[in-house]
Design a protein that fits this description.
Elements: H1 6-20, H2 25-28, H3 71-91, H4 96-107, H5 124-132, H6 134-155, H7 159-182
Helix pairs in contact: 1-6, 3-4, 3-6, 4-7, 5-6, 6-7
Length: 184
């Protein structure tokens, strides 16, 4: 039996915790765009929209979240967008590992650089938090993104995509742990 990677084990732990706190499903299994053919009624009636892994849990509290908590959803949304773009690039003939290597280089810089893909817009609140505390916020960004990519690796059946997502997840988690460990 093959040994599970750190990122894979982390996702398994998060899944166990999500069974106790359903809000964690948004991290473990991020919302994905519905397939326009398979889910024609989702979203705005034209098959455009997102479905939440947490179900209706997000609608239980209609109050806006404080700005500080907007970081994890921003990281999740970026990671989902990168994963979906990687899948599209793979369908167009690009090698997933090559696509994700560039993203990994962007998300794994040395602090105080912003750990964010250069081709994705950076949320203002995130930039402010990284500038204020890069050695705490950067590892959180990397670990959160690692969970999303490992979730894709775990759920996708294409071997090349799964391997590329798992490789990026492991790289991000290693970097997050290294950066977080250097602040202790």
């Amino acid at each position: 039996m093959a040994t599970a990677s750190r990122a894979a084990l982390t996702v398994e732990v998060m899944e166990m915790l999500a069974r106790l706190d359903p809000r964690l499903w948004e991290i473990v299994e991020p919302p994905v765009p519905p397939h326009p053919i398979h889910d024609p009624g989702v979203g705005n009636g034209f098959g455009v929209g997102f479905r939440s892994a947490a179900g209706d849990g997000a609608s239980l509290n209609p109050q806006p979240l404080p700005p500080r908590t907007a970081v994890l959803p921003a990281v999740r949304d970026m990671s989902v967008a990168v994963a979906e773009a990687t899948i599209a690039a793979s369908l167009a003939g690009r090698k997933p590992a090559e696509v994700l290597k560039e993203v990994g280089d962007d998300i794994c810089p040395d602090p105080p650089k912003l750990p964010w893909p250069k081709k994705w817009p950076v949320p203002v609140q995130l930039r402010q938090q990284v500038v204020a505390d890069p050695k705490r916020v950067s590892p959180a960004i990397q670990a959160s993104a690692a969970l999303v990519f490992q979730s894709y690796a775990h759920r996708i059946t294409d071997k090349a995509l799964s391997t590329a997502f798992a490789g990026l997840a492991d790289r991000l988690l290693e970097r997050a742990l290294k950066t977080a460990g250097s602040t202790s």
